[in-house]
Amino acid sequence: MKSAIKKYIPYALGKKLRGSWQIAQSTFYVGNKYYCPFCKSKHRKLLPGGFDHPVIKEKKIIGAGRRNNCICPRCYSTDRDRLIYIYLTHFTNISTEHSKMLHVAPSGSLKALLSTMPNLEYQEGIKHHEGFYYSKDISIIDIRKLDIEDNTFNIIFCNHVLEHIPEDMQAMKELYRVLKPGGWALLQVPISRVLKETYEDFSVTGEKEREEHFGQFDHVRIYGSDYPKRLEAAGFTVEQINPSIGWEIPDIEKYAINTEETLYIAHKK
Questions:
Q1: Which residue of 67, 155, 172, 260 pairs with 234 in a disulfide if CB–CB is 3.0 to 4.6 A?
Q2: pLDDT tens per residue, range 63-75
C-alpha cells in the first residue's frame, strides 16, 4: 500500500500542488467508460491497485491482489469504496435516518461522504495497527479494548482491519459490545475462496514472511469460509450480500467494483 500511495500521490509536493496533480491526472484519464460516484468524475480507465504476491493467487483471496481499473485517478476511491457506496445508497437509509456511527480506519472517500451527512453522529479512529494515510488529528483507538460504553453506536464500519489484529476475536466482541441492539456493522476482510478454515500462524512475524504466508506484510491471517462463524461466535447475526446476485442497478459496470467481493453485514439483535 505504501508504494502504491507514493506512486499515485506525490506527497512531497504539498497539499496545494497535490490538488493540481490530481486534476491533471484526472484530465489525462478522462473518458466515459468508468464513473466515480464520490468525485462525480468519468474516466476511460482507472489506476491499478493492490499487491501481487503468489499466495494471493494460490489461495484465491477476494479483496486482495493486484487489480486493474481499481483506483479513481481523481479522488483515489477504490473498488471496495465504490462497492460500499452502492450498497449504502441503494439498500440502506443511512443518508436520512439519525444514527451514531463508528468508522474504524476510514478511507478518505468514505470519510468525506459519511462525515458530512447531517443526520450522522460520526466518530472515527485509527485501528491499533498504525496506517499510512491518515491525518494527524484522527484519534488512535484499540478495537481490542474500546474506551466506549456498551450499546453506543447504531452503525460500525471496520473494513479490512481485522486481518491485521492477532486478537481478532477479542476485537469482534468489543465491536459487538459497543453496537446498539438492532444496529449493524460492515466488517469486510480479505477472504480465501479455497480455505474452509482461517489460516493463521503467529510464529510468522517478519514482513517478508507475512507477505509469503498471508499476502501482505502487515497481515496476520487469511480468513476462510468460516469467517461468518467467527463473527457469530462474537454474538453477531451475519448477513452475506453479493453484488452479482440480485443487484439490478443500471450501469453498475461503470463503477468498476469487484463483483466477487461479498459484503458481510453483522447485526446485533
A1: 172
A2: 999 999 999 999 9
